[in-house]
Amino acid sequence: MSSPKPATSRLIARYFWIVCVGYAVDLGSYVAMTEAGLHLYLAYLASFAIGTTCNVLLLRRYFAAGRHALGKDLALTMASNGIVILLAMGLYIALMGLLGVHHVIAKILSNGVSFLANYQVRRSFF
User: Fold this and answer.
1) Helix, strand or coil for residue 66?
2) CA 86 from centroid of its chain's CA atoms
3) pTM of this prediction?
4) Coil, helix or strand for 38?
């Protein structure tokens, strides 16, 4: 198996760093909301919306302009990410409920899975 082309590697690296910023915003807002007493599941969903919005704005600015207007891009991203978030939230609940993983660690792990899946969706359709 050969290594990716340098341009592809740079593109993936740029995407990775942009997503890390969005991920930090998502996680930071999640921790703030749970510390403020918001129910874990509501904080999970709200931080998803905040992180997704941040990612869309950053990706459009620094990764790819997008094929759609901002509003449509955000709506399509929320819809496509919404499907992935259901799977990620199932993982989040399973990690906490079945394995006893702390809710912040469960959030980090489930978000990692969702961001990888969303990379493929965004790359293919946006």
Assistant:
1) coil
2) 12
3) 0.77
4) coil
